[in-house]
Amino acid sequence: MAAGARLQTAKAEGETASIILEVSGLDAAGRAALEAKVREAAQAAGAAEVRVGMTAERVNRRIIAVGSGKGGVGKSTLSANLAVAMARLGRKVGLVDADIYGPSQPRLLATEGRKPEAEGQKLHPVQSPWGVPMLSMGHLVQPGQAIAWRGPMAGNALGQLIDAHWGDAEILVVDLPPGTGDVQLTMLQKHKPAGAVIVSTPQDLALMDAARAIRLFEQGQVPLVGMVENMAGYVCPHCGGTSDPFGTGGAETAAKAMGLPFLGRVPLNLAIRQKSDAGEPPAAGEGPEADIFAGIARGVLAWLDAQQG
């Protein structure tokens, strides 16, 4: 956007020019470059002193928490691909890796080894190659470093990630750790998600734990967007046959029993695992895997739009 389009007000009193710029969506470097350009233009017009003020439109940012009652159900993979799929559908989306003790999003979105910049007391998200800015404890500690923090420290870390300079991101997808502990309680009490997506495998044991996560969100008065069934059937890449090592349809049945929308199922697919390990989210590409995540993203966005409407 040109400097003129950012100009809100400008007035001159003697040799002093006072200029107000609208800087929504610009990072620190962009704001500095814009200010320098405006100062140069004002001085060229004869101003001896240039005073520049900046304002930004307040973004109505909504949080979608992705949770599960237990680990190992593919919640982080779903979170990463949900964020990428929503971005491909034209939404401004950021991703927070709230799994303080076991961050995996830097690997999933190919930002390992990157460090966020800080401005004042706030962080600037790391830009992923897939159009989704993100923050994770994995960006703040050495690779492989164990994080042994008590609950209050973990809660403070979550606040630092969420209260960052997210610019014009209208949606934050928050990948919660498994279980129903301190980080989840901090999220519910301090950051109040607009809604929660529950991820489970079809097996009864995972569904029991998912039900606990659902009750936690209900107690925190966080609306439930719906449930996703992950690892729902394995298609053999050699013979094309399908098997169901974790059962089939359990999450959909549970969603119906609890009166929740069923957002879709993601198969136990070798391509999804390989691309995820390589930092290439399937949702960023084309084909059946991308279509699965796009369908889930459309369901979440339709729910968000209905709430806002």
- State the fourth-level CATH superfamily of the largest domain: P-loop containing nucleotide triphosphate hydrolases
Q: CATH topology of the largest domain, what is it called?
A: Rossmann fold
The major beta sheet can be summarized as: 9 strands, mixed
What is the percent of helical residues?
A: 25-40%
What CATH architecture of the largest domain would you give? Answer: 3-Layer(aba) Sandwich
How many beta-strand runs?
14
- Unreliable segments of 5+ consecutive residues: none
- What is the overall silhouette? elongated
The chain-level mean pLDDT equals 83
Q: Report the β-strand fraction as a percent range.
A: 15-25%
- Integer tally of domains: 2
User: How far apart are the termini?
Assistant: 29 Å
Order of helices and strands: HEEHEEHEHEEEEHEHEHEEHEHH
Give a description of the structure.
With 309 residues, the chain is α/β, with parallel strands linked by helices. It has 2 domains: 3-55, no CATH class; 62-308, Rossmann fold (3-Layer(aba) Sandwich). The protein has helices spanning 3-6, 28-44, 75-88, 105-108, 151-162, 182-191, 204-219, 250-258, 270-277, 288-308, and strands spanning 7-13, 16-22, 49-55, 62-67, 93-97, 118-119, 122-123, 126-127, 133-136, 171-175, 195-200, 224-235, 242-243, 262-268. The strands form 3 sheets. Strands 4, 5, 8, 9, 10, 11, 12, 13 and 14 form a 9-stranded mixed β-sheet that branches. Strands 1-2-3 form a 3-stranded mixed β-sheet. A hairpin with a 2-residue loop joins strand 6 (118-119) and strand 7 (122-123). The longest helix has 21 residues, at 288-308. The mean pLDDT is 83.
